[in-house]
Amino acid sequence: MNNALGRLLHPRSVAVIGASDDALRIGGRPIAYMRSQGYQGRLLPVNPNWPQIQGLPAFASVAALPETPDVAIVAVAAKLAPQVVADLGARGTAAAIVFSAGFAEMGEEGTQLQQRMLDAARASGIRLLGPNSLGVLNPRIGFYGSFTSVVEMGFPGAGRVGIASQSGAYGSHILGLAREFGIGVSSCVMSGNECDISLGELVHAFVEDGDTDVITVYSEGIRDGDRLLAALEAARHARKPVVMMKVGTSAVGSAAAQSHTASIAGNDAVTDAVLAEFGVVRARSTEHMLDVARLATRRIYPANNTLGVITVSGGAGVIVSDAAETAGLPMPEMPAAAQKHLKELIPFAAPRNPVDCTAQFMNDLSIAGRFTEAVVDEGGYQSVLGFFTYTVGADSIAEGLRAQLKAVRDKHPDRLFVLSILASKERVRQYEDDGFTVFEDPARAVAAIEAMGRFGQAFARERALLPPPVPPVALPATTPSEAEAKRVLAEAGIAVAPERACATAADAVAAAQALGFPVVMKILSPDILHKSEIGGVLLNVASAGAVGDGFATLMERAKQAAPEARIEGVLVARQLFGGVECILGIQRDPVFGPVAMFGLGGIFVEVMKDVVLRRCPFGEDVAEQMIRAIQGAPLLLGARGKPPADVKALAAMLSRLSVFAHQAGPSLQSIDLNPVFALPEGQGAYAADAVIEVAP
Amino acid sequence: MNNALGRLLHPRSVAVIGASDDALRIGGRPIAYMRSQGYQGRLLPVNPNWPQIQGLPAFASVAALPETPDVAIVAVAAKLAPQVVADLGARGTAAAIVFSAGFAEMGEEGTQLQQRMLDAARASGIRLLGPNSLGVLNPRIGFYGSFTSVVEMGFPGAGRVGIASQSGAYGSHILGLAREFGIGVSSCVMSGNECDISLGELVHAFVEDGDTDVITVYSEGIRDGDRLLAALEAARHARKPVVMMKVGTSAVGSAAAQSHTASIAGNDAVTDAVLAEFGVVRARSTEHMLDVARLATRRIYPANNTLGVITVSGGAGVIVSDAAETAGLPMPEMPAAAQKHLKELIPFAAPRNPVDCTAQFMNDLSIAGRFTEAVVDEGGYQSVLGFFTYTVGADSIAEGLRAQLKAVRDKHPDRLFVLSILASKERVRQYEDDGFTVFEDPARAVAAIEAMGRFGQAFARERALLPPPVPPVALPATTPSEAEAKRVLAEAGIAVAPERACATAADAVAAAQALGFPVVMKILSPDILHKSEIGGVLLNVASAGAVGDGFATLMERAKQAAPEARIEGVLVARQLFGGVECILGIQRDPVFGPVAMFGLGGIFVEVMKDVVLRRCPFGEDVAEQMIRAIQGAPLLLGARGKPPADVKALAAMLSRLSVFAHQAGPSLQSIDLNPVFALPEGQGAYAADAVIEVAP
């Protein structure tokens, strides 16, 4: 990796601008850290007032440096930083880490200063990390381009887990915990204000970094959706697992707040859907993130994960089974022959899975080995969890058990082996060295094992083919009326209920007679989005006379409720019966672009929040998976004696809607198809109402 | 505590029957442990073959003991145990801990042996723990009536947390983790086969134990529902929090499996409901249990818990807010005046809550003190969480911050103070000694804080008054027909839809004319429980002619589908319109007796599993809380422009049903009222169908 971000993680030389002789000041800490940790590159302090800094020769200015540093640390007052960056750029430095604070985080004036600094960088091509960044550290080469004080508790161990954090304080917190968890770090980068280098680029840098196997990400707000997604796809392709903690919910675009879809599905649910799409495991807590990262360093990612459990306590077996069920990790039974064979070894063993070898193994340690071998070999599980708890804490047991387990482990290098034991740090390290990952809490072990399977599934997936395009349709320049919205959607191949726009009562009667009674009548106006709220919808209109009266009623109601609205007439549609009511929607996410939503109509969406989301566009296969994923799916598949609905037609509609939204570009704010009637199998699905919102 | 269970936890003298000179054998471990831990009572080894055991004088038999021991450990072969127990009983020993295995866990023969031993105990009144028990330990007095090898990793610390575990292996696992978590133990008891002393009695013993403040319970299957509930109520009354890990799901009685209610609500959900009723916190994992127990030792249980957060990282603030929202722990905003005042101290502080004092505090530690004081005093939060992460790891910060925080802590002894910090063990201990409970992970801290509020609420609750009885109604001896079931329920004050049982077509026509059309007609037979499955229900029967035809149709269908069934005629009921369909049910839980279920009708229960459960009996206030607790409650309260339903009438029905089920006694298996129509407010709620199952 010889590009700027590669240099940022692996600099051969580092200048510190604003270097301090005081090892506790921010311009002094990096130098002190690197000296204590044996940084092998060249360290070049810059300070006009001192000939020496912490025992190293210092230089008066960037211009005075004897060589061009790969990376420079900028630890000067904010107002001086733009000039320093310009000077570094002129020297050809690849990247600068800007510690200095007092930029965009401090209001308007700081924002302008930050822009000036960025302009200076762009002029020469030097890349900027920060400002307001706690920096970068690479324990593998002793590079500490950081002033984080977390290292006062001990420097991180070197390893193969990369950490990218937007927060310096929380990034350091993670670093401190990683050390306690025994996790070795390749590099840790804290991105600060992200005026230039963004989180997505950092993830990409870790994908390309030969020293990094596992990528952990802490994010408070994603700014570069496209770049991040490209990095996640690259990580998937490179078989590097990404585990991400994304806290809070980003602000929803003000335009989106109007849409039905946006108000139902929070922005956070969009993040969930997008991360799941790329096989990223979203961490529920810092511990969860580090548990997953630690196990992931074994680089065993079973695409068809199953869990076999060997236990010395029935209770622990139940805990593991409960946790596996919650996590959705399958625990198939042992084959009947294997069960029989284990019963012969110990009559009172429980041989199904969890396999309980009982405390008997303490009298004959080979039992533990034979039972474990049976689980791995005869059971054929991809992942194996052994619960031996404190029994290995006793020296009398520990050595013998270790030999038994190691023999099985060595014979099956492709399997994921996890132990739940309580023992001294030294003893745990021995088991870890033998190829077992150790968790004290069996439930946490299960959660981590489940994550490995999700990585494996994502890695095994073919790159999704783009779905076929829909006919190109021009989006109206402003939010269209219902009839116009439906016309546009119909052109894109989305089935709408048969209907006609009618300017007069006579037109409406003729339309109803042509469509067949009963009909639905709706006021037609580009200025009235939520018609039912003003009484603008009439259902079950069953005769020509009623249609005539209905026309007058709707005109009167519209005039009363919205005197300024442009009224184009009335929409007459055939009333659909016998289908399942659904909602299909699109909302434009400010970070990830158009996102599709599917749910069952009415209360299911509004009260039960039973919806599924997916970034656009996607094909019919994905659409069908979405439809089957909602909790209320049995209603579509024929619950309670009703005929199954036309799920294929519904999936086609959802997929086309997603492609339409993708093609429509950024002026499309939202679409609500509500209700959509999914008729019985073979009879299709039709949108009975449609709202398209276009950005002004 | 001078009763047998009190002696079991605090024996003044202990005999070991089957004592061994080998400190690694099960008859040798307790002696070795007690000697190494300085047990102050008298230790009396019994072994006919040795004059001395581990340096102590040994006695040849129970009869030869120089005094009556408070407690005896029985570590002899199973077949000898009944005689040993008889001998101990004859001496007047209060309780025996039976280590020996080979009893009920080993099949029929062992079960008989266990019964013989129990008979021997009952004859003299000696109480038995076990058999197959890993024993009892009380680190406060160095009493180790246990052969658990977990102590080889270190003996538990003495403290005020009691541990009651049904599993020896998992109990020891908990003990090992408790030591790592720095939790001091009052006593730990592992109950094994529970032939005599049950989990409920152990919980009760901890309620009465003056050395125990907090009770932790690990259960694999509750055998003594009534006793456990009495103990939990006593714990609540004594303000002793109980945190319980209940794994797996107990077997559902085979009779209950027939009932609709039982098939919807799993047995585990019953456990959830019962534990919540008593304010027991159900632990999701061992770590969760120990987190809660550790914080609970502070004995601060806020009945109206609110969380104020002081942080040095915006990101951590978001993590805490996310976790608090998930847990349902309120985080109200700081008062406006306090926010203004904090903004004056640091212009870029975030003063709402979480209150972010930013890294500025590192330059002036008094800022941390003033901000924390503001959160506690001006914010008035019951619980306060400070996120200072690794900053306290630096000696330069740690001492000063400690003084600042301690001053606030000392001024407000009634508040719960939790810190999320990363520091050395010694440093953490200092903060703990100052009155702060320390969690590394802020999300785990929030979960534990939330639990303290649940304890506080439960402790503050008045003992629930028993609801008024319903008129005593004799339950039929066998499962009654629908008409009979409704008659019984109506007598108990439960409103059923107006209806008449009709033996002939002419009766049916007359009944329909009296009730008013349209009517519902249903086949009436004690042998046909699920009428709609055989086409035995006709809806919307709208004329006298149609009633006559319907009668014939139903008779014909019943004969075809169930030729053996006793047919009593047809039930004619007025058809109800305009209400919300609900389901009310009762299932008899094998452990906790009758449990009531409430949910919305149809798909809400079957597909969405949106139900709430509660042990019977309960009053109308509780019933109304249940109704409002389901996810679909907005449908009853007037969602989507519909009139609100008569929730009061529904609550009255649910409460009366619970009282009826309670009064009916154990032969009542289940009741399904499905559907119940909750009509608009003021118009009542009526059961349109009723099934009562009676045990044969």
Automatic annotation (TrEMBL), chains A, B:
Listed Pfam families? ATP-grasp_5, CoA_binding_2, Ligase_CoA_2, Succ_CoA_lig
Return the InterPro entries for the record: ATP-grasp (IPR011761), ATP_grasp_subdomain_1 (IPR013815), CoA-bd (IPR003781), Ligase_CoA_dom (IPR043938), NAD(P)-bd_dom_sf (IPR036291), Succ_CoA_lig_flav_dom (IPR032875), Succinyl-CoA_synth-like (IPR016102)
User: What does the UniProt keyword field contain?
Assistant: ATP-binding, Ligase, Nucleotide-binding
Please name the GO terms that the record assigns under molecular function. Answer: ligase activity
What residue stretches are annotated with the ATP-grasp domain?
486-522
Q: What is this protein called?
A: Acetate--CoA ligase family protein
The uppermost taxa in this organism's lineage are: Bacteria, Pseudomonadati, Pseudomonadota, Betaproteobacteria, Burkholderiales
